[in-house]
Structures are given as structure tokens and as C-alpha cells.
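S1.2 Input.
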Amino acid sequence: MTPPAPILTPALLVDIFDAPVPYKEDSEEAQCSAIIDKLSASEVEAAARTSYAYHVASASSDDDIRALATDDVRRKMALRMARRHLEQKCLHGSRMKALESFRDCLKFRSEWEVDKLRFCFRRKDDGGDAMAGGDAATNGAAAADHKNEGGSRGIKCASLSIREEELPDAATRAKYEAMIRADEAAQPLFVRGRDVKDRAVVVKFPRTTAECDEDSYVLAHIYVAERGVAATEIYSRGREEKLLAVVDFENYGESCRPPFRAIKRLSRTLQDNYPERLDHFIVIEPPFWVRALFSMMRPFLDPDTKGKVVLVNGEAQRVERVSPHIERREAMPFMLPGGELSSKVDVDQYMHDIPFFASYEV
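S1.3 Output.
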């Protein structure tokens, strides 16, 4: 079974902030710095908040915690975002467009209120929020209170608390929760386990209806992508930035697939706004129509993404193509023969009761 999520403590935040930016070559640092130097102070802050660890530190109501989000840390986390966009544009041979891509992503995050999205689900049992820290279900007795304390102190999570002004208002919370819950009910999507490099594994089950509100469909994937990225950052202590996606399509009927327009929109949204975040996209037991759909989608996928798609049929291929990425103790049975994680997943519990950065381990 996957070890419990770490408690999000100041010491863990410092460890994450100390992790180096993973430049692939020496020249990247100067190029990324040139991008950051063209940004306003508010843009640098928004870029840094793509790091979940930096976000909860900078949004903390505790002066000592907020002090961890120094100018140097802010710049480093913004440089991480710049590196990912630079890397993506280098793959397309358009390095000079990295700044444009970077700013487009900041605009996207602002329009979709992604920072607020991280804090949109409330715990059912106590009125608090399933967000930054741990609770007894995931961290044991050492975890601190996870309840809504109200007032200016905000919401305490482990040893952290978030300022009220950083949280979504009631209308935004209700809107986002309803949209995500609706799409999750049609097609469960969640973080479950870690790969061999301590990166999050995002799992997707077959869809049960063709009914699809496009905005809800896209929003649910953004929400879980953010949870996956946060889980990778916390579990790897900032040493890794990617996640692994594994989808179970064995019993996925074509009559239940979303419209091609929605799939195309989602693909473009994730490629443009989450560059260098996907390690592999593993499709287990894809039926013929899924293979045909992938062929239709190929022209809309960048070359790097195309190379990350792995189609798996049969037990032998699961052992051959999945086991290099996931150990049995971190795998659900549909991923690997003898996978030790339970097949039963309560997505409502995942959204409400599991800390934002944690894998579903109940």
C-alpha cells in the first residue's frame, strides 16, 4: 500500500524550495531568466503559484510561514514554469515564443481561477476544506487539526492556515464544485498511487454517459491535473515535476464517449497550459474505437505528446509496459496483474476528505 501522504510542514516546504530547477542544459538558465525579467511583479507571483507548495506558503495567514516564500523562492518557482514553457517551445523549434506561451498560460489560470480551484471543496464532516494539509485519515495521529476555524485566521491545515481572502467565495465554490462533481460522476478521475520516481499517478475510468458539458469536462481535468502536480511536488519534495496518467478503457463503450470537439478542446488546453507535466499516458485495453480516435487526434498532438501515449492490450503487455513505471504495491489490479491497491474508489470522498496534494489511499 502507498505510504501515507507527508504532513505539509514548514520543514517540508523548505525542502521543496531548496530543490534545484531541473535545467537540461546550462544555457536554459539564462534563457529562463530573460523570460522572468520581462514580467511584472504580479506576473512573477502568479507564475510562482503554479507551485502548490509556494502557493500555500504565500497565502498563509502565519507570518512565519509566509516568510518562507522569499523573493528568491518566488523567482525560482517562476523559473520552473519558464523552463517548462521553454522546453515545450524548443521541441517545436520556436524557442522565441516561450514568453508568449508563458503569458497565455497565466491568462488561462486567471480566467479559470485555478488558484481558487485548489480550495473549492469542503469537508463534509466538519465544514472545513480538503486542501493544504493532512488529517487522521492520511497522516495518522500526528496530523494537526483540519477544521474551519473561521474569522481572519482562515482554515488551518496541518501546521498551515490560509487567509480568507485567498479562498473562493461561496458562489465560486458552489459553481466549481457542482461542475466537477457532475463530470466526476460521469467519469471518475483521481490521483491514486505513485510511480517509481515518486510522481503522482492520475487514474481515469470509463465514461458512463455521452452527456457532456464541455466546461465541466475541461474543469474536472484541470482540477485533477492540479492535484496530480501538487502530489508530485509534495511526494518527491520538489525533485520531480511530471505525473503519470493511466486510463482503464476495457469496458468503455463508444456510445459513452464525449463529443470529439470536447476531447480536442481538452487536449489543447492541457498541452498549452501544462507543458512538461506528462511523463506517459498509458491506455489499458483500448477498444478499436479508442485506437481510431487516437488516430484522429494525432494531428492535434504535439510530437512530444504523441511519443508519450502507450497503448496496452493483454496481461503480458501490462507487465512489459506498465511495470517499468509502477510497482505492484502502487498499482490497481487493472494496471498490473497482482496490483495491490483496491479497485474501489469513492470520488466524492476523494474530493472532500483527502488533502489536495494527497493520493487516494483509503
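S1.4 Remarks. Residues 214-235 form the longest helix (22 residues).
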